[in-house]
Design a protein that fits this description.
Elements lengths: L3 E6 L21 E5 L5 E8 L13 E14 L4 H12 E8 L2 E8 L8 E7 L4 E18 L5 E8 L4 E2 L18 E6 L1 E2 L10 E2 L5 H4 E9 L25 E9 L4 H8 L3 E12 L5 E19 L6 E8 L9 E5 L1
Antiparallel strand pairs: 1-2, 1-7, 3-4, 4-9, 5-6, 6-19, 7-8, 8-9, 8-10, 8-14, 11-16, 12-13, 14-15, 15-18, 16-17, 17-18, 17-19
Amino acid sequence: LCSTELAYAASLTAESASSALAYGTVEAVDSQFRVSSEPFNLTSDLAPDTDLVGGLEEATAQDELARSVQGNLTWPRMPTAALEFIAAYGLGGAAKAASGTGYKHTFTNTTAYEIPSFTLEEILLNGTLNYRYPGCLVDSFTLSCSKKQWWQLDASVIASGTRTSVSAPAASVSADVPLKGGDATIYMGTAYDGTDTQGANDVTGDVTGFNALVTDLSWTYNNNISADDLYDFGGGKVRTVGERDRRSQELSFSIELQAVAHLDYLTGQDTLALEIDCDSGIAAGTTTNEGFAVIFPEFKYRVANVSGGTGKLMVDIEATVIQDATYGSIQVVTYS
């Protein structure tokens, strides 16, 4: 499948009922995206009777124990609304503020283990086959980009296991423009200053020229959901609990090696901060443009591998994201 449309019930401000309703509650869809990912699949845990003594050589019966629905949502050309949607349900904490006639959303990770869920409807075969999946949880997601490419977003989703056929939803398709690597500036410094101004450097102790050295960057956020733990006694065949496990993050990027400082950051275990500031230049209201910021208030190098041989020398960095006492471990800001 090259392109699937999906509609989902969710307020992109993440202030909607979704987080307040009981897990698995079906909501009417209100927004629609086009994604580039495979359809969601329902699988069943089945038990044949081959473990019983005295039967025939092969199975004579089979029973269903549980159902599971999982899938990925992939945007190879990520719009702002997609990051709003995934950050809201992946991180779990959200705030909304007016930005002129547009909006600024700030997403942070929640301390609660119960995370918000949403209802997804999948539109297949030009709208002749449509499935509804309630109780969708964002297990993990990856935001990545390389020079001269689009920002890409890929999210792994676990649903309750309920699937019903529905008529094609009437939700309108999101009209957001996709965001490019060329729209973004990447800042690295020694500390985060606590602000999140679009188009500005919000880290202090700036590493001069860092943006020009970066060739690619990837960030993964993982709720590490234990899918089998979401079933309960008395819950029938589907999941009845929407909870995460202990979260984790992965941050990596590659840079051109032009100074030994980046090797020294590893051995010195320097405390660093990083901000991705993406400004599309396309107005989102009167004061800001469509775009986003991802801020890591504190991180440290974990790996700094040099490669390149006789060509251009590169350093491949893997970092440990640190939970800052004041600003937490991650902050995602969107403008729409």
